[in-house]
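Would you be willing to look carefully at the protein I have copied below?

:::
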Amino acid sequence: MRDRRFAVTGRMLLWTLVGAVLLATGLGGVTVWQNTYALHEERVVLRHDGQQLDGVLARPETGEGPWGLVVFVHGDGPVDATHDTFYRPLWESLARAGYASLSFSKPGVGRSEGDWLEQSMADRAEETLAALAWARARPDVDGRRIGLWGASQAGWVLPKVAARDKGLQFVIAVSPAVHWLRQGRYHLLAGLRRDGATAEETAAALRRRETTLSLLRNGASFEEYRAAVGDPGDMTAARWAFITTNHRSDATPDLPALRGTRVLLVLAGHDINVDVAETESVYRRILPASRLEVAHYPRATHSLVDHEVEGSQWRLTLTAVLAPRKLYAAGFLADQARFVQRLNGGGDAE
């Protein structure tokens, strides 16, 4: 399953060019102000599995701690520690609730060593466990108030981590995937409907999918895949290897590990990547109602961006430059802060 739409902020080159234009027309001060956050960011390094991972610890701007901590687990793709700055409004909101945020660039991204395309979901869980152990060794982190925040593909990682780390205070699962193959089919059909595909085009896409699944079941090489499907599109040998490793992923057997943890499940109304109805059904069936909170954002896309904003290139660009906090669907940032603050018996965050 691919969740590229969660990386809507990856268009940084375009934003930079627009920012330059705004600077030239006298709006530079507004741009700088809107992209300045009430955070103290520290570059940090984690050694894991013989490789160096580069990251950011974003602490509240005032106070001395020790802080609660949210460890971020990325979705699909070559995501850096800040998710091309997309995480910063969220970090700021969590900081107002008294929590720091910790995020590492994926292996092979930025200054992190390795290659994320060589990882299994179990590998990603081990990496997250290493980040948790690193954080608990810091005097400015309150080890009793540590949780995970993960999006999309992280749905296969979060419960694996919870099964090994019983000290987690909470898990925030944003647009999480459950079953790789079912989600892939859902994503394919939803995309075809969005694009107005004909019945013939839909049938052809499903036939190609069945060919791909047969090749995966048989452990075919990338060369065999390319020979069978013809034009591979944007599929590469490395991506094919990643899919071969992970296509059997299913969160269902691991989700019972979250039964003792407070879970916030975040679902979007315009999600074409994840079947949110299935995700909610599975989470509600497995997790006790007393430990599960479900938050719906009817106007949001998979990335939790307002669907009208994400659907317009000029609105997306201008919002990202002039008002990045408004990229997210209405209420999302405040709700994240309120969730972690309520865990500690606090009032609502601003």
